[in-house]
Amino acid sequence: MLLLLHRPVILGLRQAFRLRSTSSRLCIQTCSTNDSFQPQHPSPNFCGDNYSTRGWKVMGALLGLGAALAYHDHQCRASQDSPHVYTKEEVSSHSSPETGIWVTLGCEVFDVTEFVDRHPGGPSKLMLAAGGPLEPFWSLYAFHNQPHVRELLAEYKIGELNPEDDVSPTLEISDPYANDPKRHPALKVNSQRPFNAEPPPELLTENYITPNPIFFTRNHLPVPNLDPDTYRLHVVGAPGHQSLCLSLDDLYKFPKHEINVTLQCAGNRRSEMTQIKEVKGLEWKTGAISTARWAGARLSDVLAQAGYQLSDTEFHVCFEGLDCDPTGTAYGASIPLARALNPEAEVLLAYEMNGQPLPRDHGFPVRVIVPGVVGARHVKWLGRISVEPEESHSHWQRRDYKGFSPSVDWDTVDFDSAPSIQELPVQSAITEPRDGETIESGDVTIKGYAWSGGGRAIIRVDVSLDGGLTWQTAELDGEEQRPRKAWAWRLWQLQAPVPAGQKELNIVCKAVDDSYNVQPDTVAPTWNLRGVLSNAWHSVHIHVSP
Amino acid sequence: MLLLLHRPVILGLRQAFRLRSTSSRLCIQTCSTNDSFQPQHPSPNFCGDNYSTRGWKVMGALLGLGAALAYHDHQCRASQDSPHVYTKEEVSSHSSPETGIWVTLGCEVFDVTEFVDRHPGGPSKLMLAAGGPLEPFWSLYAFHNQPHVRELLAEYKIGELNPEDDVSPTLEISDPYANDPKRHPALKVNSQRPFNAEPPPELLTENYITPNPIFFTRNHLPVPNLDPDTYRLHVVGAPGHQSLCLSLDDLYKFPKHEINVTLQCAGNRRSEMTQIKEVKGLEWKTGAISTARWAGARLSDVLAQAGYQLSDTEFHVCFEGLDCDPTGTAYGASIPLARALNPEAEVLLAYEMNGQPLPRDHGFPVRVIVPGVVGARHVKWLGRISVEPEESHSHWQRRDYKGFSPSVDWDTVDFDSAPSIQELPVQSAITEPRDGETIESGDVTIKGYAWSGGGRAIIRVDVSLDGGLTWQTAELDGEEQRPRKAWAWRLWQLQAPVPAGQKELNIVCKAVDDSYNVQPDTVAPTWNLRGVLSNAWHSVHIHVSP
Asked: Could you say which residues form the signal peptide (chains A, B) (predicted)?
């Protein structure tokens, strides 16, 4: 398995060199013209070269070190009983499965050979640090700065760096997130770097169309700063057809389509899974979902111009973003060609969100909108489209955003055994009242949202005041949904008398879609190691003042 | 609401006259050329004519009386304290909402005016008996011969018939089910008239393709006896196009398509809902589902020949069977035109089942196969196809085969408030071991099936030996499923060691489809008054011999 990772690592490091003195615009060009990964062809030359030690300095120069350096200072001062001492050269020679995989954090050295395959972010990400310091990556993926991650790492400690070595991994320190846009203060931030945030529930269902500033934001990397004048979308043509290189003006010439579409992160409501058992992922509550009116060109029109026709062949349309990690690897994902070419599926290359150019956090200047499909496929800052016989080889397509049985853990997971999440299951949640709130006796007004994947309409929302013993039917608000194209949510509410003498209410909601799919009763049987697809009945406990 | 029923009743009675001396083949012609219902135009002449009394004799002549006559004899001998006595003429004058709606059973007279709207089979069915005897209908729908139905009827008793009147409703008695085909003795019969039966679970999953003789049978009416030489399928043409009148040979000339498709009755596993609270419907266990290889012409090809093209308009394709009730009303159902015209949806007009001409119980000579959709839309003995701006007005489309909240009962149900069931939700069940079985300690082999509607593939089946606390993943057998066209089930099995010391096992299964929809944990929150869509986790309790 690890052998398969060599070539991407090499490609990544080569790109890192190219990045040394590039502007972010240059980075865009690198990503958008880069060949897709071919991990099935490992490079025989990797182990012998000295790319890695030089690579780290380059990458370090591009990355900030943040809080990780504080940890470094602290650990270096702590005494240890004659730890084994290694030079940086020794560490850098351990960067492959054959030699063992070592990394450093501050002055400490770790042998993570056994851990690589279990790295929650995927082995390829950890391999980027093989033979060198973790700091540049922990700076990028700041959620590593947590006690349980450090504890886990401590198990693999084998010694310390030679104190005579300069353990500062970089000379030039910059913050890759320094150019991120400013955000609305109402957003509840789950992670600053990369930026991930959700609107508070009361604001979420105040409007059928979510205002742009509070639309939930799910970034995997720093936000690229793209120049609309020089922006180009590269579309690899069908055999016998020319590839397209489309400017924004070129995209505007395609017929403009507008649709209301709800986007939901696969991790929406993950925090409820965490209560069952720890999972890896951001602690989304009920707000990793929002609805906007998107406008743009139909992907089917653009693909037709590039020479693609609907055929029986099961191909995939791969998207690459212009948001790059330190190696120049772009965010990527794919959808089936059949969906992309089906005009009824209404897949958009969107350049407007609620009548405005896309905000930077939402993919300026162009993103994919795949109605009825998990947010992870709506690739932002779109740079490249290609049609391939296989799904995208991106980490986010192959090693993430998949659902597993509750019995599967990081030791047993086989990512190839589950399909990538595309259409999402039926979902609903209560946004008012809030969990733990105290209400007056009399009537209680309960509000929330409901949505299902694949264009399936919401036909009913049942609400219970007694934990699911008896049910009332909520009133559906917002726009009517179109048959087979119910891309946007229904908001709902129920006004119900509080049963006399009741001091507490266990309010529960569940939705039904037009395939009569329902939500599962409880969270535990749907628990999975990544905490995705959390769609059990949603409940809030409230108190009634006498 | 009742006013809306007049015209169908008249149409029905008129047809009953035509039936007086017809063969079943003539009945076919009547059904297949009959206009569809227009219940929005009540006839002002209904109340004044005398169709009804004459009609009963005709219908009685066509129908057997079965067990209902025994009840009649018994009740007439029972003494009553001077009951009010009515003549048959008086009864027959009460056949509309204006006059009140009376019916008789044996010598007893009932005023069912208030009950008509709550009749589980639909008001129109009960209105067929307005002003006359129930026997001809109870003979056709034999499940009425149950104590709780008689008790319910007794509440509406207003008197008795004049003993001088001849209470035998017919002179000629025949059994409309006398020509039904012979069935395989392995089938577990839920109802003889109409015939409804399922294979035992062990046989069900013995083969990926269910053998024809044990394929579950769901009939609503007697099985028509159709002559393949004179059989004609009437296809109403698009505006500006000729209607088609297709013989079997004409159908054979369309390209022949073959696909494996699982059919499931909406009422599969209803018996589990009955355990929560009484529902109206046949007591299906886990066997109202089977899989066959169907061959026939594509509906999209036939509709194209009749001049239909894919458009945005939300029309419906209405099907009428050649199975008629006493009034000549055919079984009917509809599907959206978008599905019918989509070649990817692969809707068939099937004339072969597992390489044989369709068996009579399964629609000989032609039935509709709508992959991924509830069995009720796969109209058998297909006589007529029309494209309409609205769904079929059939009882089975509008007043049945819909799902409601557990809080809805027969007093509060609004059938228009829920969509007709089309695609079904994800489903799975255990077929081995059987509930209550005793197994040896050591290993237990658990088998079952899993399927989802809409062409969604089964990606995983989880099995628990401890009622859902811990899970193991079953092995999927049978053919691989195609993306988006997973029309046929997956069989599955799990061999697992029985935990040491365990005396009982609570085995549970749940399936996940490729939209990551899951089955609900428990039955009660999905309970509905018709007992359809029963897809909670399936469980069997077994004993382990020491």
From this structure: none
The alpha carbon dihedral of B175, B177, B180, B185 has a sign of negative
Nearest beta carbon to residue B518 from set A344, A422, A425: A425
Contact check, Cβ <8 Å, A314/B419:
no
Please state the pTM of the whole predicted model. Answer: 0.77
pLDDT at A400: 94
User: Looking at the domain B426-544, which fold is it?
Assistant: Immunoglobulin-like (2.60.40)
Quote the CA–CA distance of B212 and B354 in Å, as a whole number. Answer: 7
Of B403, B510, B521, the CB nearest to A516: B403
- Average pLDDT of the segment spanning A366-395: 98
Chain B residues in contact with A414 by the CB 8 A cut-off are: none
Residues 312-331 of B with CB under 8 A from A: 314
pLDDT value, residue B37: 27
pLDDT value of position A135: 83
B328 dihedral zone (left: phi>0; alpha: psi -120 to 50; beta): left
The closest CB to that of B483, out of A336, A407, A473, belongs to: A336
Condensed to tens digits (0 to 9), the pLDDT of residues A498-545 reads 999 999 999 999 999 999 999 999 999 999 999 999 999 999 999 999
Rounded average pLDDT per 10-residue block, chain B, 546 residues: 32 35 30 29 30 32 31 41 88 93 94 90 80 80 81 93 70 75 93 95 93 96 97 96 97 98 98 96 97 98 94 88 90 97 96 98 98 98 97 96 97 96 98 95 96 98 98 95 96 97 96 98 98 98 94
What is the nearest CA distance from A425 to chain B, expressed in angstroms? 5
Q: How far apart are CA B175 and CA B125, in angstroms?
A: 19
Cα Rg of chain A (Å, integer): 25
Across the interface, do A423 and B515 touch by the CB < 8 Å criterion?
A: yes
- CATH says B188-399 is which class? alpha beta
- Determine contact: A104 vs chain B, CB below 8 A: no
Report strand pairing: A438-440 vs A538-545: parallel
User: Is the domain defined by A85-161 classed in CATH 3.10.120.10?
Assistant: yes
Regarding an ipTM greater than 0.85, the answer is no
**Region class of A399: left (phi > 0), else alpha (psi between -120 and 50), else beta:** alpha
Residue B401 annotated in active site: yes
- How far does B445 lie from chain A, in Å, by closest CA? 19
Q: Rounded to an integer, what distance in angstroms lies between the CA atom of residue B516 and that of residue B513?
A: 5
Task: From chain A, pick out residues whose CB is under 8 angstroms from the CB of B516.
Answer: 403, 421, 423-425, 533
Amino acid at B143: F
Chain A contacts of B391, Cβ < 8 Å?
none
Q: From chain A, pick out residues whose CB is under 8 angstroms from the CB of B468.
A: 525
| pLDDT at A29 (0 to 100) | 29
- Comparing A65-79, A260-274, A455-469, B95-109, the range with the smallest average pLDDT is A65-79
Alpha-carbon distances of A149 from A139, A154, A324, rounded to whole Å: 14, 9, 24
Cα A487 to chain centroid distance, Å, stands at: 20
Check A471 against B407: CB less than 8 A apart: yes
* CA B426 distance to own-chain centroid: 20
- Look at residue A43 and tell me whether its pLDDT is greater than 60: no
Same fold for the pair B85-161 and B188-399: no
Residue A506 touches chain B, beta carbons under 8 Å: no
Domain ranges of chain B: 85-161, 188-399, 426-544
User: What value does the mean pLDDT of chain A take?
Assistant: 85
A276 touches chain B (CB under 8 A): no
